[in-house]
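Holo prediction — NAP.
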Amino acid sequence: MTVRTASRMDEGRYVLITGASSGIGAELAWLYAARGRPLVLWGRNAGRLENVAARARGCGVDVRTRVLDVADGTAAIAALREDDASHPLDIVILAAGQGDMRRGDDVVERAEDVLRLGLVNYATPSAMAAAAAECMVPRGQGHIVLIGSVAAFHALPFAAAYSGSKAGLKRFAEAQQMALAPLGIGVTLVSPGFVDTPMSRRVVGAKPFLQTAPMAARRIARAVDRDRPHLIFPFLFSVLRLVDTLVPWPLKRRILSAIKADQTG
Ligand SMILES: NC(=O)c1ccc[n+]([C@@H]2O[C@H](COP(=O)([O-])OP(=O)(O)OC[C@H]3O[C@@H](n4cnc5c(N)ncnc54)[C@H](OP(=O)(O)O)[C@@H]3O)[C@@H](O)[C@H]2O)c1
């Protein structure tokens, strides 16, 4: 296993983070800024993104920002190529994502929500990871981080779009990791459980083993330093993932169908 320690060489190398205006992405921005890394931060809400960027600039690093809705995958690919052309990207962290689940009396999730989650959580981050790889391969170095979810491990009847989109991202990341490893490009899939951010605060009910966002950011950065292909946290969810593969489908169906979940907003 390669361990990339934060070195002086890394200091001038740019880190691009999507979803940097909030939660895990914002914490990663501050963490890498504290390591002396210049940043390219993407978000949708310009005010929140600027607040995150201002705090990162306090560490004395160059910070560029880009306001873009990643539901437009074609625009996101073009923007990533443009950013890499002006500031070659050493690490690309694809954290932008949306959580959603069936609400109230809805029988299934709304078609428009299913489409949006497919674009934001799966199609665009996968396409951006491919665009990042195109840029990194000729340089023979770089690292791509895709933020998935433990929801990818289970078929969640109340969140088919979320669990389905994250399952697609997981499969893409695993395949990309194998394809790029011989070319010197690292790929890390991150599968978090509950992390205390605006996204998880909308979920009503128990959030077992809730992690703080700074803790999540530290774990993710450490996994990148160690070139880990897959980070799952907290550990309990690795166990549940294993259980999911062992339990026969009729029993699994009964358990998953019995889970009650809802969200506000
Ligand atoms: N929190 C958890 O419990 C948890 C658990 C498992 C996985 N995750 C994953 O972790 C990642 C980060 O989530 P978080 O918890 O940090 O949530 P968050 O605080 O709600 O942040 C989500 C980020 O994604 C951005 N984003 C959402 N939709 C976007 C769009 N269409 N275009 C551009 N940017 C968009 C948001 O931008 P604006 O704020 O500017 O709109 C924000 O910066 C997500 O991929 C999420 O699925 C989170």
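READOUT: The CA atoms of residues 244 and 252 lie 7 Å apart.
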